[in-house]
């Protein structure tokens, strides 16, 4: 039985789409670009922001630094109310902690905003370790983040499960020989996620609870 969990953060534990979309809209308006560009940009959520910008805007002939500057000029700290945990997640994390399941985060969110949000939700005690782009040489879908987590726990790949909402999470897990669970209530569709052959694909937090009770609890 699996004893450890590696969670993605945005789109898996918390609904950050409203804040991410607001930042994108602000950047596109600042750059004088149509809102339609956001469709391609949203498909890159799950990668570090800079990588998503490179993939989206380099083909359009824009300078990456200009887009990054426009995106980061949005007042994120004043709009944190746009981020909230998915319904049922806090209770699930409590249940897992009470059952002595050790948990971690493998996220593309930078460490400073991640720590700010964990503190806001009162989630600091849930996770033994979190690995961000600030902590690795290679980001998702490279397996380095999961390798760090496995080394920290001293566990084998079959003792931990990766839970995420994007193909980048699942590809990272596959490259680390770690089983994965896909959630479809985040950023990527069931069709895309299923192509990566996760252990299970769930549509709701309630379904996720059932799967974890079968494999972990």
How would you describe what is shown here?
By secondary structure, this protein is α/β, with parallel strands linked by helices. It has 2 domains: 4-15 and 83-215, Rossmann fold (3-Layer(aba) Sandwich); 17-80. The protein has 10 helices and 8 strands. The chain has a 6-stranded parallel β-sheet, with helices on both faces. A two-stranded antiparallel ribbon has the order 2-3. Strand 4 (102-106), helix 6 (111-121) and strand 5 form a beta-alpha-beta unit. The model has no long low-confidence stretch (mean pLDDT 96).
SSE layout and pairings?
Layout: E1 4-7, E2 14-15, H1 17-31, H2 37-42, H3 49-57, H4 64-72, E3 84-85, H5 89-98, E4 102-106, H6 111-121, E5 127-131, H7 144-153, E6 160-164, H8 167-175, E7 180-183, H9 190-194, E8 200-202, H10 205-215
Parallel strand pairs: 1-4, 1-6, 4-5, 6-7, 7-8
Antiparallel strand pairs: 2-3
Helix pairs in contact: 1-4
